[in-house]
Amino acid sequence: MPTVIADYTKLSIPERLALIGEIWDSITAEGKAIPLTDEQKAELDRRMAEHDKNPDAAIPWEEIRRTADQPA
After folding, report:
1. How many CA atoms lie within 13 A of 65 on its CB side?
2. CA dist 29 to 15, 19, 59, Å?
3. Can you tell me the distance from the alpha carbon of 25 to that of 1, in angstroms, rounded to the nearest whole number?
4. Domain of 44?
5. 2 assigned to some structural domain
6. What letters, b where the CB count within 10 A reaches 16 and e where it falls short, cover 21-58?
7. Reported pTM
8. Nearest-angstrom CA–CA distance, 29 and 27
């Protein structure tokens, strides 16, 4: 992959966000797991234990998406 150095500050915000997406996609496309810190692992374990205790407390993604799309 060629190395391209550019002044990203000259890009518009939507262009910078698109660039972030492209960079992220290139990282995930390699298929390598991104290592988690011990703190991140502990937080995931805590959240899973909380979900296991009360799975009905979870809000379905569709509901979150629907309410997020509504004007405040």
Report:
1. 3
2. 21, 15, 30
3. 14
4. 9-68
5. no
6. eeeeeeeeeeeeeeeeeeeeeeeeeeeeeeeeeeeeee
7. 0.51
8. 5
Residues 6 or more apart in contact with residue 36 via CB below 8 angstroms? 44
User: Are the C-beta atoms of 51 and 58 separated by less than 8 Å?
Assistant: yes
Which pLDDT does position 1 carry in this prediction? 57
- In single-letter form, the type of residue at position 16 comes to R
Residue 33 in domain: yes
55 DSSP assignment: G
| Single-letter amino acid code for the residue at 18 | A
Here the tokens at position 25 are 């996609």
* 3-class secondary-structure state, position 38: helix
Residue 3 lies in a domain: no
- Tell me how many domains the chain contains: 1
| Tens-digit pLDDT profile for residues 42-61 | 999 999 999 999 999 999 99
